[in-house]
Design a protein that fits this description.
This is DUF4396 domain-containing protein. By secondary structure, the protein is mostly helical. It is built from five helices and no strands.
Length: 159
């Protein structure tokens, strides 16, 4: 069965999660690069990466919603409603995996261990966040808020 009683498909949930993953990955990598460049401690680098993941996740959503004609404040409210839970779940899983992989946090940007662990952590976070987004969209929450400003289409490719 592909649909819930409210019509949220796995495809729609995967699309919303991929959108979230894009913002998270941009923020994570940028945070790691900045943290490494400035010699920040691991904890400070993680905090910076998480903050940037939220910033880029929200920004990607706002970009699409602003194109629908909403003003900045309203678009920000939609982005916060659409993405906060999804990004939070993704960041908890992603950073949790990075912390439990031996040596990943200390490996540095030039290490295959770091990039392999990051890729694996993002993939695991994606898989675990899709059902969360499916549940939320099926109840009119999360990315369902974005769909209301795009005529309900399933794709997020324009974001």
């Amino acid at each position: 069965m592909n649909e819930t009683r409210h019509g949220a498909s796995w495809s729609m949930a995967a699309s919303a999660t991929l959108h979230c993953l894009t913002g998270c990955a941009i923020g994570e990598v940028l945070g790691m690069v900045i943290g490494t460049a400035f010699g920040l401690h691991n904890a400070a680098t993680v905090v910076l990466s998480i903050a940037l993941a939220f910033v880029f996740g929200y920004a990607l959503t706002m970009r699409g919603v602003l194109k629908s004609g909403l003003r900045f404040g309203a678009a920000l409210k939609v982005a916060l409603a659409a993405d906060t839970v999804s990004i939070a779940v993704m960041e908890i899983v992603d950073n949790g995996v990075m912390v439990v992989v031996p040596g990943a946090m200390d490996a540095g940007l030039t290490s295959l261990l770091f990039w392999g662990a990051l890729a694996a952590s993002l993939a695991i976070a994606f898989v675990l966040t899709v059902p969360v987004n499916k549940w939320m969209i099926g109840r009119g929450l999360g990315h369902a808020k974005v769909h209301a400003h795009h005529g309900g289409h399933e794709g997020h490719h324009a974001h």
